[in-house]
Structures are given as structure tokens and as C-alpha cells.
Design goal:
By secondary structure, the chain is mainly alpha-helical. The chain has one domain: Arc Repressor Mutant, subunit A (Orthogonal Bundle), CATH 1.10.10.10. It has six helices and three strands. Strand 2 and strand 3 form a beta hairpin. Helix 2 packs across helix 5. It starts with 11 loop residues before the first helix and ends in a 6-residue tail after the last helix.
Length: about 150
């Protein structure tokens, strides 16, 4: 199979950047369908996986500054997807937990995200998807731990 596209349009950097842009657009649309921001999605997934946690620990899990987490939690609380309650032994601390509606949404998001990923990667058979993910993970890990990253 010949490719008539110019060389710059076949380069790895271009393809990664362009696909990154397309997948970001797809992901943003997916989140919009659920009326969620990326940070809200991360909170729901983290709580779904870890169960009720303190606000400080939740901020660590979702990589959001604890001061910025409050507005994220407010939006989810307003939608009755989570609740904040006093810690059992330390009244100064707050524990964040999913409500029944929040649990249902978090569980549904996992399946919906997988379906969206399948739609985006539909041109690749399963074995190629697995290989692509493994290669991308290797590149990602190398960037995080490479010589310029202090590792």
C-alpha cells in the first residue's frame, strides 16, 4: 500500500500530536455528555475505586491541589453524586463518599469510557490495540523517568 501523503503528515510526532488532539476532542465530548469536567470524572473514578476517603487523600489520588478540589466537590455535591461528612475520629477532617446516584454514574462511566475508546480505536483489531497501548505506555514511562527527569 502506498501513501501519497507528504512526509511531514506521516511523521510520528505529527501523528501523535494530531491523534492526541482528536482523542482530546472525543474525550471532552464524552465528558460533556455526562456534564462532567476532567477533575469531576477523576473524583468519581477514584471514589469508585477506593471508597470513602478524606479530602486530602482524594486530592492526592486525583492530582488536584486540595484548595482547588473544593469547587470540584461542590459541583458533584450539588448534583447529589457525593457527600462530605465529618471524619469518624477527627471532626476537623472531612470524608468524601459517593451517593447511590454517584455510584451508579461511576459504574456506568467505566463502561461508557470503554465503549468510547472502542469507537475511537475501531480501525485496529484487539491485538493491535493492546500492542499500541503497551508501546505508548513504554514511551510515556520513559518520558517520566528519563535522564532529563531526574530519575
Amino acid at each position: 500500500m502506498t501513501d501519497d501523503r507528504p512526509a511531514w503528515e506521516r511523521g510520528t510526532g505529527f501523528l501523535l500530536a494530531r491523534l492526541g488532539s482528536l482523542t482530546a476532542r472525543s474525550w471532552t465530548a464524552f465528558l460533556g455528555e455526562h456534564r462532567l469536567t476532567q477533575a469531576q470524572y477523576a473524583v468519581l473514578v477514584a471514589l469508585g475505586r477506593h471508597g470513602p476517603v478524606g479530602q486530602g487523600r482524594l486530592a492526592e489520588l486525583v492530582a488536584v491541589d486540595a484548595r482547588n478540589l473544593v469547587s470540584v466537590l461542590d459541583g458533584l455535591t450539588d448534583r447529589r453524586l457525593l457527600e462530605r461528612r465529618p471524619h469518624d475520629t477527627d471532626g476537623r477532617r472531612r470524608v468524601v463518599a459517593l451517593t447511590a446516584d454517584g455510584r451508579a454514574l461511576a459504574d456506568g462511566l467505566a463502561a461508557a469510557a470503554a465503549a468510547e475508546q472502542d469507537r475511537f480505536l475501531a480501525a485496529l483489531p484487539p491485538a493491535d490495540r493492546t500492542r499500541l497501548n503497551r508501546l505508548l505506555q513504554r514511551l510515556y514511562d520513559a518520558q517520566l523517568t528519563g535522564p532529563d527527569r531526574g530519575a
